[in-house]
Amino acid sequence: MDLSALFEAEMAAHAEAFEASRRALAQPFARLVEACRTAIAGGGKILFMGNGGSAADSQHLATELTVRYARNRKAIAALALTTDTSCLTAAANDFSFDQIFARQIEALGRPGDVAIGITTSGKSPNITQALRTAKALGLVAAALSGRDGGDLVGLADPLVIVPSAITARIQEMHILLGHMLCEALERSQP
């Protein structure tokens, strides 16, 4: 294996995804930030969800908001719906895996909250079902996705679609966008 070639190829692929995202995502990202600012200002919260690496990103971002991102400030209400193993396994067992997040949104979500699904493909049934539930209950159903947005097009709004078909590149942009969201929300707090 030529490690130097691998390094250069991966960095180039990342830079390409970054530039494509920089050109395409300013407006959808601004809409996501505004939806979250509105929710927080109104006493609401942000509910993150995802599978696999996106589950890890959900936990990471919720923690950055509830604890701190870069500076000490008032806590921002955020939850990762990926962390309660008893709830996740009960919902999967008693209903279906497609319901693991929807059931939590039904219990914890309130009108004006923002539910953010994170899925690289846009085709995760548990994310789409959760966002349908969120919309029906008066939450903002938002998402970070990739490829062509999959089943989230017409469902999630705001919808931030990373312009890439490579899962690793989409995930890299998702965590960058997530950090930018945390920075923007943190700057909005006293």
Describe the structure.
There is one protein chain. With 190 residues, the protein is an alpha/beta fold. 54% of the residues lie in helices and 12% in strands. The protein contains seven helices and five strands. It has a five-stranded parallel beta sheet. α6 links the parallel β3 and β4. α1 packs across α7 (167-187) and α2 crosses α7 (167-187).
Structural class: alpha/beta
User: What general form does the structure show?
Assistant: globular
Indicate the proportion of strand residues.
5-15%
Count of individual beta strands: 5
Helix content: 40-55%
What features would you highlight for this structure?
single chain, 190 residues, alpha/beta, 5-stranded parallel β-sheet, 7 helices, 5 strands, 12% strand, globular
Short description:
The protein is of the alpha/beta class.
What is the fold's blueprint, element by element?
Blueprint: H1 3-24, H2 26-41, E1 46-50, H3 53-66, E2 78-80, H4 85-94, H5 102-108, E3 114-118, H6 125-136, E4 140-145, E5 159-161, H7 167-187
Parallel strand pairs: 1-2, 1-3, 3-4, 4-5
Helix pairs in contact: 1-7, 2-7, 3-7, 5-6
